[in-house]
Input
Amino acid sequence: MGTSDTVGVMADEDRRKFLRAATRAIGGGVGLVVAGPALTLLADPATKMTVTTPTAPLDLGLAEQFRVGAEPRKVDVIAPVVKDAWLASRNVMLGAAWIQRTAPDKIVALSAVCPHLGCAVNWDPSAGNFACSCHDSRFNAAGDKLSGPAERGMDELPLQVVDGRLQLTWIRYKLGQTVREPA
Amino acid sequence: MKASVRDYLRERGISGGRAPSMIAGGASFAYVFGAVLLFLLLMEAVTGAALAAFYAPSSTDAWGSVAYLQDQASLGWLVRGIHFQGASAIVIVTGIHLVQTALYGAYKKPREVVWWLGILLMMLTLAWAMTGFVLRWDQAGYWANKAEIGIAAGMPLIGNAIKKLAIGGNDYGNLTLTRFYMLHVTILPAVVGGVTAGHVMLSRKLGPTPLGDGEQVSRPRWPDQTLRNTIAIAVVFTILLAYVISRHGVDLAAPADPVQAYDARPQWYFRWLFELRELSGSAKQLVAFAVPAIIGGALVALPLVDREPVRDPRRRVLYVGGLAGLLALVCGLTIASFASDAGSDELAKREAKASERAALARKLARENGVPATGAGDVFWTAPMARARALYESRCKSCHDAESKDRKGPIIAAGHGNRAWLKAFIKNPSGDENWGRTRLAKTNACMKPFQQLDPVDLDNLVELIYSESGESDVVEDKRKRGIDVFEHASIDCHSREEGMPGPAAPGLGGVGSRAYYLSFISNPKSALHMGHDKDRSQMPRFDKELTLAERDALAEYLVWLRKATPEDLAALDPY
Output
């Protein structure tokens, strides 16, 4: 029953405590350095524009083909290049726009994407208005809402005429809300 | 019989009993290697999972996805580097673990099964590394895999079937990648995980082989041994990390290309076998799979042959000597293989070219993206790439300064710019111009304008330069140039678009894309060199090349006017 034995046991217990703490600290440190870069890499796409469609205006052909009084005409909107992470795809169809000349010096483009749930809006020549094929929302020739579940009128797209050619800026808007904001 | 099987299993820790929490003989740094390997395997799992979130196992996309991960995703290069070099670390630590076990005689009863599972794990991890190397679908991984599968295909009877099964069909393609990817991320991790669990569980139950013979104190595994394991893990990981950072991760060669030869080399840990195969002449196919099989068989047989309980290496000279001999052979062959590569200047040149090509492919992938038609087509996204290739195959032999049998004027950077026009007008029959054509030896050839007043010459050059449609024309000079033209050139040439001159080619639009297209299509037309009779040796290309190809060449000639020799050099991918 010597005191030195008790001191020895105590010292051993302290030593164990220290060893445990040291093991956890070193192990945790290594774990962090392994997991850190892996998690940074995993989170990387969330910080980037991984899919980029052109923000610059896209050429839709000659403006003179649209005449005052003619019915709206559907034109495909095609991006020369769409980048998706590593991939660059050429001539990608982004969607379509309904184009009409409302006055000699004014051409209007309406997105063919229905503001309700994104179906394709078509021109109904017999009724003389736009109709969505999915839920029969109706819009007049100017794109204002007439009837149906759509929350707002059709979305107008920025259109310019440069050197006699139509230049359209393609924008996708958020669906199913009265406010028009880019998606 | 039944009882003896039960005894066998119990004695070897396979059934019954639990892992003791104490280590007989105390903790030691000699016991850390298994724990380090376990850590490295887990590290591969973590980094591998992050990489899998970016990887696309398809022959068109695989290289592009790896290039994106390597060059564009944050820390992608680091994670990929750790994952790749982690495999090397596993091979090194496995080697130490194996040599130590063999030296201590730790494979002896009752630890035979632990040893066998260890040998199996070593082979599985080597195969695992092999399935990973091909996934990047670059020249290095593609050609190395072709060589490895070629070895397997050399096996008698079943070789061809194994090859077809491994690459998923008759040739390399999408199914090759999906197959190796499946092996790499599902089957092998599961199998290695299972075998590792057995290996670790049994060795825990049986405890480490005591270092000495005498009776020793026992110490608790946690924390005494665990701390030593953790310190060893930290040291190995620090070395690995420092190596990966110092090399900026791991290389990526140009996209896999079945028609572009490449000096395929296996990973360093297979180089001994590669060298042995090279040295074996006509027996190389046999050697390549027979030697690993013999070595594997010998390792498996070791506990069955070396059965005496004695573990002291000095008293097991035969086995220790055999192992040392094997190690010396493997190291010697590895060194010989690297030395013979290092001694070859030809190889160094080819490798330098290959890495230039890789750098260009990665730069283009970063800037332009990889085309949907496949990563190999990334080279075509370089400006003028297609025209340059056409030039190489169709124009170069007659028009390049370096061509031995040049027949026409040199076409180089700056072709058709003001300096070039001036030099041409001064000396049309100079060697760099028409000097080598038949035309130069006739009276019909344009005479040198050496006596023309320098100011007049400048103005004339500006006028002709303006025909190209370039936007940087000095209008005053051009106008004065009209007078010079009326005086000096009008007898022979015309400036009217589409009109031949009275005695020489029409110069309307000369140097424009449309002009070049027309000239390349038919140099013998009345508008060009056929104004009186055909005076051109240049063939028509309107039948041989498509309109798009001729237009690409015309665009190239326009581009060349403002290009420098450096711009031109930057275009050449090979």
Remarks:
- The two ends of chain B are 70 Å apart (CA to CA).
- Chain B touches chain A through 42 residues (CB under 8 Å).
- The first strand of chain B starts at residue 22 and ends at 24.
